[in-house]
Design brief:
The chain has 190 residues and is an all-alpha fold. It has a two-stranded antiparallel sheet. The relative contact order is 0.15. It is built from 5 helices and 2 strands. It is elongated and about 55 Å long.
């Protein structure tokens, strides 16, 4: 195995882990909102809106950091199909991190609901009030949430594969910079 000797920049690592926490929280909050019709729904919604806007802003910053500081190369011996899957899944994650909050904002705008970021901070609508658009955007928001969840699981699975099975430094480059792990010695079955 070829080791990955590159590392992500500190801002990239901080943004990655901060956004991972926020996105996992957002997914759980979203599930809680869908599953609840109680007063708890309003409380979750009050958290969901500002958290979505925070994710949108952080995704823009994160994309700028990535474009300015490209990620370290993947190991040379990684199969081309896995490299393609890594690239595609990363760009899908960026797309979803940007699209989900915008779709949610547009959905609320189409429904005539305010996007409140606090007691007095209200964002302007970004879509005209339209019941049909609200219904379509609501469905799209739900489908994209499922896609985000599945992509997140695939990303986490790939990270664990690199960290625990291949031990090629890919996971390490996001944890604390590149620090080569010792090679795994084959186990003698006798």
């Amino acid at each position: 195995m070829t080791s990955n000797t590159g590392t992500f920049t500190l801002p990239a690592r901080v943004l990655h882990w901060l956004m991972a926490i926020l996105i996992v929280a957002m997914l759980f909050i979203g599930v809680g909102m869908v599953a609840s019709v109680s007063a708890r729904h309003e409380w979750l919604l009050a958290i969901h809106k500002p958290l979505g806007i925070a994710i949108l802003l952080l995704a823009i910053v994160r994309l700028a950091v990535r474009l300015r500081h490209p990620p370290p190369p993947l190991p040379a011996d990684l199969p081309a199909l896995q490299k393609l899957a890594a690239l595609a899944s990363h760009w899908l994650l960026y797309f979803l991190m940007l699209a989900m909050p915008l779709i949610g904002w547009a959905m609320l705008s189409a429904g005539g609901y305010p996007v409140m970021l606090g007691a007095s901070l209200r964002l302007p609508p970004i879509f005209p009030t339209n019941a049909v658009a609200f219904a379509v955007l609501r469905q799209l928001h739900g489908w994209f949430a499922m896609l985000l969840f599945l992509t997140f699981l695939a990303h986490m699975g790939a990270a664990l594969y690199h960290g625990l099975i291949r031990r090629d430094g890919v996971l390490q480059s996001m944890l604390r910079g590149a620090k080569e792990l010792p090679p795994v010695e084959p186990v003698d079955p006798s």
